[in-house]
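Troubleshooting: if your tokenizer reports a length mismatch, compare against these two reference records.
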Amino acid sequence: MFTAKRLIRSFLIGVWFMILVFPIVGIKIIKRAPEFFYDRVFVIGIITFVLAMLWSWYFEVYKERGVSDGIFSKISQKCSALSEKVTHDKSTAMKLILVLFAAFMVLPLFTSMYQTTVYSLAFLYVMLALGLNIVVGIAGQLVLGYAAFYAVGAYTYGLFYQYFGLGFWVCLPIAGFITVIAGLLLAFPVLRLRGDYLAIVTLGFGEIVRLLLINWADFTGGNQGISNIPRPGFFGIELSPEGSTIYIYYLCLFAAIITIVIVARLINSRVGLALQALREDEIASEAMGIDLRKVKMAAFALGSCWAGFAGVLFAARNSYINPTSFTFMESAMILSMVVLGGMGSIVGVTLAALVLALMPEYLRAFSEYRMLIFGLLMVTMMIFRPQGIIPPAKRKYAPTALKNEENN
């Protein structure tokens, strides 16, 4: 195990990683003077050295047996079996949904207001991830500026309240309609683009929206944003701050559940099947009579709509919005949820959204290293489980005669 070659290689990896993280972890500006924390960098180097040794040993041990004998592959097989069971066994899926729903329904009774606020944000990420999953996972169109639609929804509520005095429930459908128009405006000029070119254009669209919000300061408030956005009312009853927080929590929870149900129905609909055909092969789907123009525009419209709804909930939850909440990093985080969960999978994307939204909060105890741990977990996931946590189960077809013989 401890060969000289492996020791030298692991040592060089540790030194390289120490150099890489030194500007982030090893230097802090305190009272306008830099202070150096060599002990933290040294600890990271030791941990990296040990992990590199274990990494090399793992692949050497299972090289002759085949990677399928490894522990990570066994976990991968378990996840695949769980995906098949949850997707095809409706009773299992219903039990899982009921258990999660019951747990989240009583969660505010046993947690603090801070935890309730964190979970409400996690439910918003579930909505965003499932909305992007329609475009990226189901339709196969790579979008890197999804936070732009999120911003359009949030600013629709903020601006309509500021200038017209409209409330939450009135702005919610208006924001959905406006974000659908924004999605169609983006989709129309990029109908012939695919792959990296489509990703670059959508990335540019996201930055255009963000810079427009910053530079149009007379209308949007610029970097100062919009404050004092009211929270939704409950049949005219004035709620306390704690009651309003719990009310927003349940709104986000039910919005996430509605999103899950609608996206699940969408996948098995005619539109959903057309989107999946588009993802697999555009030429073959067009040859089968699918109108690619309409299908692509439908994908962008449906995906952007859910981002608009989530944006209104975000504005109501925070009572304040500004352009810094809708940067490219937000789009990258939402895309990571789709990729890590399993592109096209509802259960996997939902689980990944909850994990990636809650993990940074629960790793605050490791405030100096939490993003490193977060990145390490993501890289490990991409190596050993590139298809996602729970990938979508493949459709299986069998002739009717064979099904009858199996039943008999």
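Reference record two:
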Amino acid sequence: MIAASRRLGLGIAAAALALFACAVPASAQSERRGGTPGDFDFYVLALSWSPGFCASEGDSKGRDQCRTGAGLGFVVHGLWPQFDRGFPTECQPANPTPSRLSLEAARGVFPDEGLARYEWRKHGTCSGRSPTDYFRDVRSARDKIQVPPDLARPTSAMTTTAIDLERSFVAANPGLRADMMSVACKGSVLQEVRVCFTRDLRSFTSCPEVDRRGCRARDITVPAVR
């Protein structure tokens, strides 16, 4: 009887832990704050679909990129150092604050300077690079990606699937495969396309964990540019 009670108690405890794990966002489970700059396995270039971001949260924050007539489609969200499992954030850099000269290297890469500062603090500090070199790396990674023609500046909303979005990017970028990227959505609205690069940014690389975190919505809405 006692053994059975113990087994029941262990079963309840295990179930509670499983429920807790499900309740904690995947990002919270895998984020590792602090760490050694330069200690990571590969990069993720996150390209935000600006109209999707604006619809979900940008409008309420009054972001300039969301104003009518901005005409923005894919913009850089960030270049993120990753481990094969999880990712580092807020490492201890030699240069904790980017200078005005460093921020010049970010001009035209991020949609605004505030995002560039935030991305350096959260992700760039883990790259092992100086702020200037990190922002140049972000530009280099962005310039290696060709946006499919039908996603360059759509003037009306589209409905598609994560698989079809991945296929479009694969077709437009030689060497890229579906297991080297993922599509992120909020509800059923496109938020980002995330592409995995080797540490030297010379080629794409497989990233199973990033791929598994992709959008699970059956159909995805791609809002038109504004």
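Descriptive notes for reference record two:
- Confidence is low (pLDDT under 50) at residues 1-28.
- The first helix runs from residue 2 to 23.
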